[in-house]
Design a protein that fits this description.
This is Phospholipase C/D domain-containing protein. It holds the Pfam family Zn_dep_PLPC. This protein is mostly helical and about 300 residues long. It is about 70% helix and about 0% strand. The chain has one domain.
Length: about 300
């Protein structure tokens, strides 16, 4: 299985733009929507319920684009305006279901990129290597096993109309849409392979940085809240104020991480003292998901 280390290298080499939550997590969140359609407005629930696989495809399709940073700021595929433009250009109900899935992906990413990943980046300040991609892969290890069967079923469908919609709206990066799609399909395929899941399990078991169940539950419940809140309220959702790319939060996390590392290595700060500071920052970081201006408070305390 030479492809496993190759894809692992690919994921690590294009970390913060290839993934947010992994495909498995996005499918798990999408499945939660399908299992609770009564929590959505009837018109939206009817479309998603009629075209569940198109919806799930949309839930992972937002990560088709590789090299997101090579597009103009306003054309980044993880901007709300792009997700809404996909919905505006959807002519058929199956395409609308796909667009709802795409927007659900962005809603979930507001939690991943503004809270989960930034906090873990800061908390692992004492090491060089534990950054964006590492924590996303760690979380993927806890995906429900039946979700990978869902992934297999979703991947077997033909989404030509959905791809035509995405191709119409999304900008090319360093690769064309077709090339991006082939790379994405390969990553998704490997994610379902048992040996790859064993790699993730080994990664988790050998780490000295725990990802406790209580933490996983918090992040997942918050991501689920973001998805349902957005699907019901759209621009009126409080999560619409959050940036799905998490650029400011991730930059803040890197700044805090760098400062803590310098203080720790120079002997001016002990690890317990750093952890105490981070415990205080965590609450502020969560609050800043939908109020990004609060990130300045985190930087001002450093």
């Amino acid at each position: 299985m030479l492809i496993l280390p190759i894809v692992l290298l690919l994921v690590i080499c294009i970390p913060h733009e290839a993934l947010a939550w992994g495909g498995g997590i996005h499918l798990q969140l999408g499945s939660a929507v399908l299992n609770n359609l009564q929590a959505l407005k009837p018109a939206i629930a009817a479309i998603i319920g009629e075209f569940p696989n198109d919806f799930l495809y949309g839930c992972i399709a937002a990560d088709i684009t590789i090299g997101k940073k090579f597009t103009h700021y306003l054309l980044h595929c993880h901007r709300w305006r792009i997700g809404l433009k996909i919905l505006e250009n959807a002519e058929k109900d199956a395409q609308k279901a796909c667009a709802y899935g795409y927007l659900s992906h962005l809603a979930a990413d507001t939690v991943a990129h503004n809270y989960f990943v930034p906090y873990k980046i800061m908390r692992s300040f004492s090491t060089f290597t534990l950054k964006h991609a590492y924590w996303e892969m760690r979380f993927e290890n806890f995906v429900d096993k039946d979700i990978w069967e869902t992934a297999r079923k979703v991947s077997m469908e033909n989404y030509r109309q959905n791809d035509a919609l995405l191709r119409k709206v999304l900008s090319d990066t360093i690769f064309s849409f077709g090339t991006n799609k082939r790379i994405f399909n390969s990553i998704l395929l490997v994610s379902r392979v048992e040996k790859w899941q064993q790699v993730l399990q080994t990664l988790s078991d050998s780490s000295r940085f725990a990802l406790e169940e209580i933490d996983r539950d918090e992040y997942m419940s918050l991501a689920e809240e973001a998805v349902f809140d957005f699907l019901n309220s759209f621009e009126d959702s409080r999560f619409f104020q959050a940036d799905p790319t998490g650029e400011r939060a991730l930059a803040t996390a890197e700044a805090v991480r760098k400062n803590l590392r310098l203080l720790y290595r120079s002997g001016k700060l002990t690890k317990p003292q750093a952890m105490e500071q981070l415990d205080e920052i965590k609450g502020k970081l969560r609050e800043a998901i939908c109020q990004p201006e609060l990130l300045l408070q985190i930087l001002s305390t450093e």
